[in-house]
Amino acid sequence: MGQTTLDDDDLFDEAASEMREDVEESLAKAREALPEGDAIWDVDADNTLGVLNGLRSALDPGEAQDHLTDAKKWYTMGDRADAFEDADDLAEEIETLEEVFADIEDAHEQVSDLASTVPELRGALDDAHEAADADDEGDAEADADADAEEAEAAD
User: Least packed by Cβ within 10 Å: which of 22, 77, 99, 108?
Assistant: First the structure.
């Protein structure tokens, strides 16, 4: 019976080691899949909407989120099974990446809001200027009519 327990312990240690490797590998893949800083900094577009759409695309975490989810899944399983001797480094790295993802998500939402607001704002500004131009034309016509009436009255 003692031999079976030893084998089970050895298997458990091996599984714990593999689990840690899986967590580390998933974290590495998550970091590698994050958007590059230049991708959100350098933008090639002809107008504001193009910039916002490019930025929104660059802020898509893509597969990085899936890799972080895998890391958290394996970490949680190993942590609950008390399989890790020292997993503080893994917990810290997961927390750090979660903060980065939260920042990316917040920025993505803000850019998405702006990308939908800017065209609406442009339309409202165009409408306001058209109305102002129409008022100016109406005022000019009224002034011209008043001048014509004054000229007729003077004759």
Answer: 99
